[in-house]
């Protein structure tokens, strides 16, 4: 369900510049939503895959960028948290211009004045970029995702969804979620929760005394998180 107007919408892992990006749904989503703030929680543009694997930037991807800029021109505040697939431009973090800012992390203050830590997530888990576990996961995901997209298109079967619901898949996801929450706790600030991306697994749940939220992606699940009056909810598109 999509509300008429959101205070904030959080999206992540769109992967513009690759075939696995569901640019059609993402473009429709951008044209549909009305929000005061749009927080992009990393891996919106897949610089890594374009440079390393020569994936193609398509006309539809440019149209998505135009829609984001339209939101900006209409007064929507845009926060762009860079992810590991945008690692090459992390050197330019803490860039701000009028209603736009590009950062490594972001502290979101919601309509009730409560603080939420927003991070992509690749730096704060045992499965983070640079670790052997993340390397194996990334290689596997790069191989599996195109097949999953093909299977979903012709047979309505998501291989990625199936693997994430295996015993090992669920364990990986649970460990990642705990790592992100622990990082939030280590900050020793009065956060009520954390919003992340990276793992491509949309979820909202309580872990200990904090709210854990993952935006999901616009590859397989086409999901986001919305905030209205300090309340957070799933958006499935």
Question: Could you give the topology of this structure?
Answer:
Elements: E1 6-11, H1 23-32, E2 35-41, H2 47-53, H3 59-73, E3 77-81, E4 95-97, E5 100-103, E6 105-109, E7 115-119, H4 132-155, H5 159-164, H6 167-186, E8 191-196, E9 203-207, E10 210-214, E11 223-228, E12 231-236
Parallel strand pairs: 1-2, 2-3, 3-5, 7-8, 8-10
Antiparallel strand pairs: 1-11, 4-5, 6-7, 9-10, 11-12
Describe the fold and architecture.
35% of the residues lie in helices and 27% in strands. It is an alpha/beta fold and 237 residues long. The protein has one domain: Purple Acid Phosphatase, chain A, domain 2 (4-Layer Sandwich), CATH 3.60.21. Strands 4-5-3-2-1-11-12 form a 7-stranded mixed sheet, with helices on one face. A 5-stranded mixed sheet has the order 6-7-8-10-9, with helices on one face. The mean pLDDT is 88.
Short account of what is shown:
The chain is an alpha/beta fold and 237 residues long. The protein has six helices and twelve strands.
Q: How many domains make up the coordinates?
A: 1
Q: What is the count of β-strands?
A: 12
Strand order of the largest sheet: 4-5-3-2-1-11-12
Rg, nearest Å: 17 Å
Characterize the main sheet.
7 strands, mixed
Mean pLDDT value? 88
CATH superfamily, called what?
A: Metallo-dependent phosphatases
Question: What structural class do the secondary elements suggest?
Answer: alpha/beta
Number of helices: 6
The CATH level-2 architecture is identified as: 4-Layer Sandwich
Q: What percent of residues adopt helix (DSSP H or I)?
A: 25-40%
CATH class wording: Alpha Beta
